[in-house]
Amino acid sequence: MERILAEEGYASSTEVAERLGVSTMTIRRDLQQLEESGRAQRVAGGATIAIRGLPFERRSGAEAAQKRRLAAMAAAEIGDAAMVALDAGTTVAGIAPLLEDATIVTHSLPVITAVAGRVGTLVALGGLFQPDTRAFAGPMAEQAALEVHCDIAVLSATGVTGDALWGTNALDASLKRVLASIADRVLVVADGTKLGARAPLRICETELVDLLLTDDRADPAVCDALRARGIDVRIAR
Questions:
Q1: What angle do helix axes 13-20 and 24-36 make, rounded to 10 degrees?
Q2: pLDDT at residue 199 in the model
């Protein structure tokens, strides 16, 4: 069970029981032991690997000036796109108030709160609430996302290397992949400290990314590696 969690990030109790040929009760007991030892976190229907980044509030307060510049740059790039998917990143949350005419598709509670009171359309993706990201995730949110199509998806990541985006929350990573799949274009916003950094979970390959917005602290070697893969990399000054 622990091996499956390490490899996949999330495990369904029912599916793992079928794969291993044991009862779901056995799997639940194993999950309880893993959770008590701090190696897993039980969620509805199964468990995720016990990896947590900084709380949302601490992340949202860090690098505030850079986040505002990236948010403004992203909003200008989004332009008059009609349907925009926004993930649960703290920089992405700053983009939402700048998109006055777009229909917003999101699982982020801060984004939902920011746009719910204005004229316009909001598609909120409900599911299992994740306190560390202040967002909903899991199979229900993913299924809801698959019911819509977006002009652009705006994603964030804990780390960006030449070949992949990296994160810390398995359910959030899975939903990011779904958001990328339902959009014509994928825009990633990541401040310069994220470029070259890795996190425990691979979100997706960089081939899914069309445009990366970062700042002047970004490692030039990583920017060059991304450009070599056909990604448009732009620097906020």
A1: 120
A2: 84
